[in-house]
Model the fold of this input.
Amino acid sequence: MRHDRSRGVICQYARDFLCGLLAILAVVALATLDMRSAHSAEPSASSIPAVNSATLHVGALQAERISSDIHIEVTGGIARASVTQIFRRPAGQPSTALFLFPLPEAASVDTLSLKIGDQTIETGIISVLKPVRPAARTVEAAPASRLPELSAGQFAVSIPDIGSAELITVRFQYQHVIQPRSGVYSLVFPLAGDDPESANTPERVSLSVHLAAGFDIGDIGSRHHVVFIRHIGDREAVLTLAGSTSDGRDLEIAWAPKAAAAPQTAMFVEDAGTAAYAMAMIAPPKTNVAMQRELVFLLDTSGSMTGVAIDQARASIVAAIERLGIHDRFNIILFNEQLTPLFDGPRDANPTNFAAAADFLRRIEPHGGGDMLAAISAGLREANREETSRLRQIITITDGRIAPRPEMFAEIAARRGKARVFFAGIGSAPDARLLQRAAHIGRGEAHSVADRNGTGDMLDRLLARIERPAITDLKIVWPADARPDVSPDPLPDVYAGEPLMIVSRLNAAKGKVVLSGTIDNKPWKVALTPASVMPKSGLSRQWARNKIALIAAQGLSGKPAQETLEAIGKIALAHAIASPATTFAATESGAGNPPMALSVRQGGIAVSGPAAADSAAIASGAKNVSHVGDDAQMLASPAASQTNYLAIIAMSLLFAAMTALTMALWRQLRRAYAPAPRRRRYN
Done:
């Protein structure tokens, strides 16, 4: 009897424990669902499409962009834009916001500030490699999910709390290099509205462009807007937008150099105090003299090239060799696990050899793997077999993954001779940075295409471009005490319609700079004197970006990763630019406003986590310094999240046990104090 009673008590306790556990789990589940529904109003990767112009998403709605003030300084081919945009917050939305801006190709934001109501958030660049001071308060970097996965051309800032502010102002500066196409420069600023049916008041737009072209300006104007143009001499102009409201179309300014029989040169200088930064610019002359060339094609015929890539490569090569002049020569070398040359050496460009090349390419059957180093060595041997006055060009076409092998770079540097080495990368496997580095060493260029269906177009552009070298064997001589650090180095050729920019760090910008080369097989030389120098800004950052790209490429070819990051960080920090070793950090001003954590992503890469720091902390190089408010749970690291889960489990079990004990105690008390049942009396 007693045994049955004990078993009944245990079963009752278990039932009470289970009821308590279910109750607390239900509460936790409801709280979690409530948090998720609250955060579901935040912008996400699935709800935010690629934007056409600057947008501010507040919750699930897009804020109205009420004004844009844009000033762009163009120095040669370097454009530096200063942008201020004001947004009006939509009513009835939560306080989280996401700012998005579509950057031009290869552009990078280096200055950012926000004004939210009366609160101002300024940012600076700090190192992520230096240890945090003991006194600094830190948080872990925000997980990638804080920001949506964006395309490589977008800049994003996640703002965790805009409070009740009605107006949000975003100020930022970015810089990029404008690459001319067919001799025409095109500068585009995105102003197109993403909602053409919007009933909002037309946006107020103020825009000015100060163009210092570096050459005599020929045609200039806007494709879609009316602009006022004020010329300052032959080489400078100021353009302002006529009218003060947007018509919903992107602003595009285009200009081209005036045709000239001789090269046009200019030098721009930025004095940074401890050093000077100079950019020499060379606009090639108009010439109809075709330089004699010798082409060697290295075509990857490994198994991965099967299909559209090899078909389009065949067609592009055949078209290129059929455009060769009667004094030109060519050869084709196929490479996979072995090398298969068309001829035993370069042959004349004539119909008989064209037919042999077409038949040779038609019989290709891609298979096996590929040996890039062996192919490049064979191409260099081929090009330097004998002395010739022809310009030798080696074009490597591959879709293979290129291992970071220092011996490949060393082989090109040691054996390139007078040859130019070009690379065409197809698909996602070739590393564009390695190709670019190898091409720079070979005084050539690297072009890449991610979509294999675009192989033919990419090759046609590359092969058409290198058909028209205007200045070869280019050299630059700096003053004796300048100690130049030059990019690019070695100098490439200058092609028709494609001005070249040479950027250098100098001890001082004094004395003559001498440029020389070969034009139409004749020597050419020009001296740039201090009187011809134009002071400009943005050159130091451009030199730093070029230098970081070079260091990164060297790191991929064998230098230790930590050493590479430290070298990148040193340059990026000194020139205040975002990089793999530096990050944005935010400081704030405004009485009574708590610091805020921002997350920044540009070019598809997170360049900062939540980083809100005091000015002193930025100066000290503290990593991701921040004060965290109610948003702290969203910034937790994986370790912190695991700790939270364990705490929830422990609290749930404790609550269930307390519930069972409480119910058992209640039953005992109920039995102890319950009135005894009355007995019925029977007469």
